[in-house]
Give the backbone structure.
Amino acid sequence: MFLDEPTPATRLRVASFFAGIGGFDLGFERAGLETVWQCEIKDFCLEILEQHWPHVERARDIREVEPYEIADADVWAGGFPCQDVSLARMGPRAGLAGNQSGLFYAFADLIESCRPKALVIENVAALLSSNQGRDFAVVVRTLAELGYGIAWRVLDSRYFGIPQSRSRVFIIGYLGGAERAGAVLFEPECRDRDSETRRSNGQKTVSPFKICVGDASKGFVKKLAHCLYAESARHTGTDWSRNYVSYPQGWVRRLTPLETERLQGFPDNWTVPKRRQHNLQALDSARYHACGNAVSVPVAEWLGRRIRRVLGPELVDF
Ligand SMILES: C[S@@+](CC[C@H](N)C(=O)[O-])C[C@H]1O[C@@H](n2cnc3c(N)ncnc32)[C@H](O)[C@@H]1O
């Protein structure tokens, strides 16, 4: 909580691209921003977005969006698909030349047409090394040529109160210059990790790991693979080796969809559609996949607070 946070009279409006199940949207809303438009192609994700933001206008395929369709917004947020830059692929990476990660260019075309004041872009940290760094240079140069001051920082979800090591690069673009963009991401008053010793009611805090998955000290959970990836309910070789919990007795089990929601900071059952599906395996797959793709909500919330605090009044008067 920033006590001296200047609060703009008007809420900052956010257009959310590649919205998934709304990790950015939920975190930003918790920080006091308002989602006014969303774009997402997958039916399952669209259903979850519709459930949580019934009044927000939505588009499907970014390649078909016309600039005039996008609601007026102060901030555009989006984590373009990472499949072609991710190291999880364990093979040659097509980078921005790939069909999926190449959607960055569709996003950039819309940015060029509408010139929102501020941008927040998220991707796997491997974007920094894809094509020996040339892909990241393309992203930065493209935005800089459109007039944006750019700053970036790798943030790891483990320092935001959730027990998951998840390093992602966050890029801030701001039409008001790089120094202000940098001020969003780098705070001199940063807390040391997420270690609160007491809750506001005086009780001791409970470790986030215990809240999400269980209590290791009681002899249940021994180990959790370090980072949640997008995967399906059918575990195959590498998928299985990532998201599992192993027990001292030698048992191993995969995470439940509910646990994957918790590990990303979503409320319980965020990804359960109201219209129940009969094929539970398909539903589990969709939930695993969407949670593995999402932005960790507490990280988005922190970014939202930083944007309000550092850019809030400027954005409103821009
Ligand atoms: C890395 S995920 C972003 C997840 C999101 N930030 C969240 O918190 O859930 C990328 C998203 O882009 C979506 N996507 C892929 N192609 C798209 C397209 N052509 N138009 C719009 N969205 C697309 C995917 O379905 C996926 O949900």
